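Known limitations

Files may contain more than one protein. Parsers should not assume a single record per file. Below, a two-record file is shown to illustrate correct handling: read the sequence, read the token line, then continue until end of file.
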Amino acid sequence: MLTIGQLASYAGVTVRAVRHYHAKGLLPEPERDHSGYRRYGADAVVRLVKIRTLAEAGVPLSRVADLVAADQEAFAAAVDDIDRRLRSEIRERQRHRERVAQLASGDSLALPPEAVDYLSRLRELGFRERVVEIERDSWILVAAQAPDRVAAMMALKRQQIEDPFVAGLYLSFEEIFDCAPDDPRLPAFADRVVAFIEAAGDKARQVAHDSAIDDGWLTDDIVDLLDSAFVDSFAAAPRLLELLEERGYTGWTNVRPIDSPS
């Protein structure tokens, strides 16, 4: 007969594990002998080895008791079920590993692949990282509210950013990122933005707020949120919007002439 320490040693587990299996009802706890010790026989060793083997294979302890007592047919069926579950978990963990690997770029944290590709293209075209960050944060907001529209919108944005007109508009913003609200260059820059908009007409309005607004998916709430993000993105942004209003335009995400409907 074995003490609990000898039992644990035979089965290749710790004494703590044996006591845990007692508490879970997986391993019967024998009565104490006349010396006050619990003694275990060969059947306890065999059962404990089975428990340990099943646990190491990833079988939940809630299933172990049934499996230890199951006949061969029931045991085989249960093992098949557990194997299917484990394979599913492996696939899920692999997806997690792939997702973690993508996070190395930073952009993948909260954006679908189409948006990540778009941001990569901005970098390839030479845009400063500050521009890319503003775009990234805006599309995180959009993706959170309308995830099913991101792929279509990214296809549109990829087309737009290849247009020299749009590229020039984006690149021009780099000049004012470090401007203070009273920077004397701001009025001239506002004039350039308006000139861009008016020279291109409908094209510029599409660039500013995207044709998908007409579909109704970009709600007032999302527009307000995106405008707020723009205002917070650099110190001179609120003043720039004021200057644009002085020149007859309102909004940013959905920029439009002040006398036109929203």
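...continuing to the second record:
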Amino acid sequence: MNFLKRLSKKGDKITFYYDYGHGPGQRPTTGIFIYKQPKDQIPKNHNKQALALLETQKSQLTIEQQATGSAFIPAHKFKANFIDYYDEYVKLNSPKGNRHLSNSLTQFRLFIENDFIAPIDINENLCKRFRRFLLDKYTGETPLNYYARFKWVLNAATSDNMIFSGGVIDIHRIDPPGPCRFA
């Protein structure tokens, strides 16, 4: 991973950018800058800390690039608790005026009866038991809607490499076959 340096218009600061290529939008800013000629100890300390932060970001990006396509999940990307991942997904992806996703999380928490579940514990049997829990508790289309949102989260977790579809769970097999997939 390369970082580019650019001098500010005033010439007093150096800003760092990611270098993903030469096309438009392929050089976003890191948000990190250093002072070109620090005059006292405060800007010197700032420069030292900013360069350390830049090295940390560089290391994390290098590890992410090297881990792409493998089963390794970098520690800074890994969430040890599936409930935390689910909660973050709900916060980032809830459509306005629709409570299915947030209520799905609430029902999953009631089903788990715990604040912690490891991603490795999410398996096909747990999904089937959660489905049965929803069917026993609700009628109509409510269980279908909640379970569909739960599957959204599983799909996202699988694509984010939190859950591996090849080893832990195959999310396409957790519904029964037939025309009415949820009855």
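Parsers that stop after the first record will miss the second one. For reference, the second record is described as follows. The mean pLDDT is 83.
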